[in-house]
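Fold sample X.
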Amino acid sequence: MRRLTLLVLLLAGLVLATQDRWYPDVKEGLDVAKKQNKLVMFYFYEETCTYCKYMEEVVFVDPKVSTFMSKNFVVVPIDVEDPPKDLDRRLRVFGTPHFMFLDPFRNRVIFEIIGMQETDDFLRLIRRACLKFERRKC
């Protein structure tokens, strides 16, 4: 029982540590991405989405994924049930989880991932998104 409690606390800590680097404010996320020369990764989710929970609790906390994400992207989470009022219409989606990668310098979506992905598949796809960014090497 003690091990299970420790495991749950460890996983919760990993999720929170990963999400601490996220920017829920769209404008701030865009500004930080420009300053750090990174892509913006919009993560569209719903609170009731079981596939989103899987991404958050399994995929995002994988050390390879979380390291690659923090090194190459500024993550902006968007709750599709309560999107920011100033969210660009191009960034509206149907269905979650949904990921859009925006080049903040050209203000252009350069890659999308739709739906839940297993860890290795997600890592392969976000690497592909990063390779499409012309201003830096991944």
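Fold sample Y, listed below.
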Amino acid sequence: MPAAPGPPAGRRATHPKEHMNHAEEIQTREGVAVVLYGKKPCVQCDATERKFKKHNIHYTKVDVTKDETALDFIKALGYSAAPVVYVSTIEGDVHWTGYDVEQIAEHITERQDAA
């Protein structure tokens, strides 16, 4: 079965500046920011959140059903499914959709500055 269309997993961020980026605001303050864009009900959103909590990762959760600007932002990134995880660091930003343990490990749980 062919893969669903959309941005490649873990692609580097390029986004229109007119859309609000929650991660950039936090990254400016703290060096690394993790934002979980999700909704209820969402099994993959819940699994991602459990993984963050298990590893004591500081993150911001944004409900895209209640925040139209956030929904516009993830749509501008090319996503139409939740969750979208957005990681902003001084080196650059990366984002993906779905519960992806490899991306979480590479970009969050194995980073000293993300914990």
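Sample Y note: The mean pLDDT is 80.
Also: Helices lie at 22-30, 43-54, 68-76, 101-109.
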